[in-house]
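Lecture notes, continued. The same structure-token format from the folding unit now serves as the input rather than the output. Read the line below as a description of shape only.
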């Protein structure tokens, strides 16, 4: 199997979401999504799913291929996937106010005060709340 197989959904690896199976979409429950904070944590979604076909044999949508690609990128880059995306994609593109965070993390720029309660709203959030935010 190659990175191209993973990118083009021709890897044949099993996946938690099998679009070819005769099931309902509500049958696919990831579970505690807030625990999926790293590429390594997503590996549990691939566990126990048999290979569907030999790599390159045909197309079958597979989210799990991107989990494997994220792990490969981490190992090649020597840093975690979220940091890798920030350093290699966002910052070179000048996207200094954009963040790619693990599940459950909140940006340092996030505000817990809804904009509808702000007397003055700016790109960085509430500058003065009309009423206290809890």
């Amino acid at each position: 199997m190659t990175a191209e197989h993973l990118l083009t959904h021709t890897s044949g690896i099993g996946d938690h979401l099998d679009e070819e199976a005769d099931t309902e979409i509500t049958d696919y429950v990831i579970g505690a999504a807030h625990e999926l904070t790293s590429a390594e944590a997503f590996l549990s979604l691939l566990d126990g799913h048999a290979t569907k076909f030999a790599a390159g044999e045909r197309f079958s949508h597979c989210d799990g291929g991107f989990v494997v690609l994220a792990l490969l990128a981490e190992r090649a880059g020597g840093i975690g996937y979220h940091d890798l995306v920030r350093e290699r994609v966002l910052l070179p593109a000048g996207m200094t106010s954009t963040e790619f965070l693990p599940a459950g993390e909140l940006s340092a720029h996030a505000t817990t005060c809804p904009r509808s309660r702000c007397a003055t709203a700016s790109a960085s959030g509430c500058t003065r709340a009309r009423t206290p935010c809890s």
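Point for the exam: The chain has four helices and two strands.
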